[in-house]
Amino acid sequence: MSEARDEAPRGVFAAALTPMDGNLNVDREAFALHCRRLLEAGCHGLGVFGTTGEASSLSAKERAAALEALVEAGIPGERLLPGTGSCALTEAVWLSRAALEAGAAGVLVLPPFYYKGVTDEGLYRFFAQLIERVGDGRLRLYLYHFPQMTGGVGISVPLVRRLAADYPEVVRGIKDSEGSWPRIEALCRELPGFGVFAGTERFLLDTLRAGGAGCISATANVTARLARRVYDLHAAGEPGEASSAQRRLTGLRKALEAYPAIPALKLLMRDLTGEDRWLNLRPPLVNLEGESAARLLEEARTLGLAEHAP
Amino acid sequence: MSEARDEAPRGVFAAALTPMDGNLNVDREAFALHCRRLLEAGCHGLGVFGTTGEASSLSAKERAAALEALVEAGIPGERLLPGTGSCALTEAVWLSRAALEAGAAGVLVLPPFYYKGVTDEGLYRFFAQLIERVGDGRLRLYLYHFPQMTGGVGISVPLVRRLAADYPEVVRGIKDSEGSWPRIEALCRELPGFGVFAGTERFLLDTLRAGGAGCISATANVTARLARRVYDLHAAGEPGEASSAQRRLTGLRKALEAYPAIPALKLLMRDLTGEDRWLNLRPPLVNLEGESAARLLEEARTLGLAEHAP
Hints:
Two copies of one chain form a homodimer.
Chain A: H1 3-6, E1 11-14, H2 28-40, E2 45-46, H3 60-72, H4 89-101, E3 107-109, H5 120-134, E4 141-145, H6 157-166, E5 171-176, H7 181-190, E6 195-198, H8 204-209, E7 214-217, H9 220-235, H10 239-257, H11 261-273, H12 290-302, H13 305-308
């Protein structure tokens, strides 16, 4: 096993929110501050510009510039797994190169998600062409499987196997956000050493026990401390305490899952930090308001979210 | 009724295919040639960079540059309705401005299609912000409704009404590709003078009779002559002959609908023109091959497609 593989991303990753300013542009200062807080709260790394980071609502240029600014602000590139997927192959290539320039640990890549009913062969060619066009030995690619958001366009287990077999130095893992434990378990079992991240901290301990890498999760923006505790208890060989911490973590996640993710998380961040900019969302997303906002905030207080949050 | 409204796009529009070269870049020369052929075959105009034009597979820069090149090659901007939608508001603004610079008759705009379960209010804000950020009195916006491709994110009839009421000088019409005749009929009835284009030439005559503007259709890449005949017979007040031509047109469309649209149309174009470049497709799309390719070509011959095609 190479040294590079030993240093592969692993553990608790927050799919970091992207704070926006009043003009709905990325608030770079606030973004760096948020990422710093998440790392200090125990995140091993950050999945920036994923679904939670409103990546699809930003142009490629905006994503690349914000990533560069984040690293310049002192967030270590090697702790970052930026999303660089795009429906356009050329744009995914450009974004992936920009991520390499920023020193990112790897890139998290959605399949092209506009056309529906596409074949595994077509998706294979997309990823293969991406790898070949980037043409850089430093590239570490993590597949991003989230069929609920991509209108059913997913990365099947046979496709994961084929890509990992054909590009073993590049295709290093997957973020699996489908929410199916049997699928994650199958990936861990069939691909030992592959970096399998569950897309929810609900499966954090199970994934670690199955030999996976950890989780990359939206709700880790507010549950980071507790998620890290689960990881550490597992690493310390404390299965009973790890399970009990996981139960609490799962309870938090379940409560938060009932709300639209990004508006709910931004509302919680506003509540936790007092910073109003957290309510800036690019359309088509809209803020949680009225009764459901009040219910979420009350539930967060009942669950003692503040003590687990960054 | 203003002069601008009298000159509003109307009639048979092909959702033009985008020919690619061997490196899967837009083949600008072939693109201009194809557009010229479509206009000579009777298309009143062209919906370029829509679903059929593989717009989502091209970066924003590629789309804008190819549009500029098309106009420079002599395709009149006023015959073009380029797709300028993007999940990113900032990119849709940039593309729409580029379309205005190219002298386009209007822009065809998808809703942002990554996030699912978004509200009409969120989509309204997207379009409203787009219009306000472009901030150009020349902007003519056509909504692009295609929920099958956008994973269910559609533009509801109340949302169409709200946008048309709030921005009457800008929001001038819709391309409705859902495939529901009652919906198209309702739009024609509820919004007299609104430019309703059916997304299929199946509904061409019905749409014209209901007071709509026409159709913008993928299959018009190969059925343009016959579609134009339907339009002309209707305009000449020949309802019987128009209906009979529409029946033949519907027959063609139904036969073609059985195949994946873009690979099938590119294969037919290769067959009709002998130009091999028509087989260049960006992944995730793949060519039609083997038995289904043979079946399509045979069916096209049986239906006499060559005589209706550009």
